[in-house]
Amino acid sequence: MELAGEDAIPIVNYLQGKKNISEFKIAEATKKEIHETRNILYKLFNHNLATYYRKKDREKGWYISYWTFNKNRVKELIVSMKTQKLEKLKERLRHEEENQNSFYMCKNLCTRLDFDSSVNFNFRCPECGTLLDQHDNSRTITSIRERIRELETDA
Predict the structure, then answer these.
(1) What residues make up the domain containing 90?
(2) What is d(CA 65, CA 68) in angstroms, rounded to the nearest whole number?
(3) 89: buried, middle or exposed (CB in 10 Å: 19+, 13-18, 0-12)?
């Protein structure tokens, strides 16, 4: 779902356990338009979650793609995505901890800026012009640490 969107779920479910299924049969079975089905299938293909081959229809002269879901790639992708999320969260945690109490936030919740950006805007919100208040980021740090802990214990 994270890679190809929520609309990909019915297609993935339909393809599981099947091989070389026509894109037209997939569209019909999932009750989706053919162009929408193709877009989703190509997203899956771009992440190596699906493979296909094309064959020319003798009657109409069109090319038809036949698709197979690559379930072996799913586990590998999950591990890869989790690793990327952890790296991003750890980098954000490092940034938040190094700049503790150096963030400023608009009262209207338009934006949250670090000290340097706040100085550049004269401690005024770039969206609405309201004076920025210093923001205590200790809850943000706690939240990021908890999310990292969840992802690490989920492994």
Answers:
(1) 73-153
(2) 10
(3) middle
Phi, psi of 87 (to 5 degrees): -60, -45
Tally of residues, the chain: 155
The two tokens of residue 97 are 């901890």
Beta strands 103-105 and 112-114 are: antiparallel
Q: Do 13 and 42 reside in the same domain of the chain?
A: yes
Query: How distant, in Å, are the alpha carbons of 26, 70, 91, 120 from that of 43?
Result: 15, 13, 28, 41
Residue keyed to tokens 């000290």: 115
Based on the domain organization, do 129 and 85 belong to the same domain?
yes
Other CB atoms within a 10 A radius of the CB of residue 85 amount to 14
Which helix (H) or strand (E) segment holds residue 55: the answer is strand 50-56
* CA distance linking residue 131 with residue 109, whole number of Å: 12
pTM of the model: 0.64
Q: Which two tokens stand for residue 127?
A: 């969206």
Mean pLDDT (10-residue bins), the chain, 155 residues: 83 92 94 94 92 90 92 86 94 94 93 94 95 93 95 80
